[in-house]
Design a protein that fits this description.
By secondary structure, this protein is α+β, with helices and mostly antiparallel strands. It has a single domain (4-249), classed as TULIP domain (Bactericidal permeability-increasing protein, domain 1, Super Roll). It has five helices and six strands. Strands 1, 2, 3, 4, 5 and 6 form a six-stranded antiparallel sheet that branches. The longest helix has 30 residues, at 214-243. It is elongated and about 90 Å long. The protein binds 2-acetamido-2-deoxy-beta-D-glucopyranose (2 copies). One 2-acetamido-2-deoxy-beta-D-glucopyranose is lined by residues 132, 139, 141, 196, 202. One 2-acetamido-2-deoxy-beta-D-glucopyranose binds next to β5 and β6. One of its GO terms (biological process) is circadian rhythm. Keywords: Biological rhythms, Signal. This is Protein takeout.
């Protein structure tokens, strides 16, 4: 009797302690231990746990919904190579980003670097566009809605950060200084509405031409798209990391 009462008290104290220690851990966070021999696997699980929260957004961190992902604007101005074009895409909505398949995670704690490999089965993009110029000698102009479906996308992300002492929490935090993204698209179908002031014959011919040559078009758009996406995810990540210290996210 006496001993089991002690054990109960002990268990109660333990669980109270655990409750206090984990009280500030929100449900979207899976904590990984720095010395976990399977740390990469643990981080993989914690990113997968984050997925539904990325779909809805995380209001507490001012992270908006990523489904669809809103990109305000992408500007492309190319004057050399096969594509000499000035184009602006605005009000871009990208659907499908949270259906990623996480293939690998490699964390390098000493160098504050995380390397991710992802696979995206499909992305659907809708935007407003305005363009003028030449693609493979063919003049192109138009303004209206742009649609694109992209499948079989391999993504490599390399997140380079640094540590700093937060004045707010008085603890060490991680901050992303460079979010490198490389997208490798397997297949694309694109359609630009209202090319050449809505001239159907010219417009249909140009849309066929664009789809036949989408790799050349995509290569021109790629750097601007990758930069824009990496800026967005750098901002999201830093909202996240500024809230939680390194000892909270990656305790010993
Ligand atoms: C993209 O896929 C959607 C849904 O399957 C389809 O309605 C749309 O026509 C496709 N767009 C293009 C440009 O292929
Ligand atoms: C757009 O292309 C059409 C057809 O080639 C041409 O008549 C028109 O002048 C062009 N508009 C601009 C703004 O370049």
């Amino acid at each position: 009797m006496h001993i089991s009462a002690h054990i109960l008290t002990f268990l109660f104290l333990i669980s109270a302690f655990v409750a206090v220690k984990t009280r500030n851990i929100p449900p979207f966070l899976k904590i990984c231990h720095r010395n976990d021999p399977n740390l990469n696997e643990c981080i993989k699980q914690s990113i997968n746990l984050l997925r539904p929260y990325l779909k809805t957004g995380i209001p507490a961190l001012q992270i908006p919904s990523c489904e669809p992902l809103h990109v305000p604007q992408i500007k492309i101005s190319e004057s050399v190579g096969p594509v000499s074009i000035k184009s602006i895409y605005t009000d871009i909505k990208i659907q499908g980003g949270t259906s990623f398949i996480l293939k690998s995670v490699k964390i390098d704690i000493d160098n504050n670097r995380i390397r991710l490999k992802l696979y995206l089965p499909r992305l659907e993009m809708n935007a407003r566009y305005n363009m003028e110029g030449k693609i493979l000698m063919m003049p192109i102009n138009g303004t209206g809605l742009a649609h694109g479906n992209f499948t079989d996308i391999d993504v490599i992300a390399i997140i380079q950060g640094e540590r700093y002492q937060s004045r707010r929490t008085d603890e060490t935090h991680y901050r992303v200084i460079d979010f490198y993204v490389d997208l490798d698209v397997g297949q694309a179908n694109i359609h630009l509405d209202n090319l050449f002031n809505g001239d159907d014959t010219l417009s249909n011919a140009m849309n066929l031409f664009l789809n036949d040559n989408w790799k050349i078009v995509a290569a021109e758009i790629k750097p601007a798209l990758e930069n824009t996406i990496s800026e967005i995810f750098k901002t999201f990540s830093n909202k996240f990391y500024s809230k939680f210290s390194l000892d909270t996210l990656l305790p010993l």
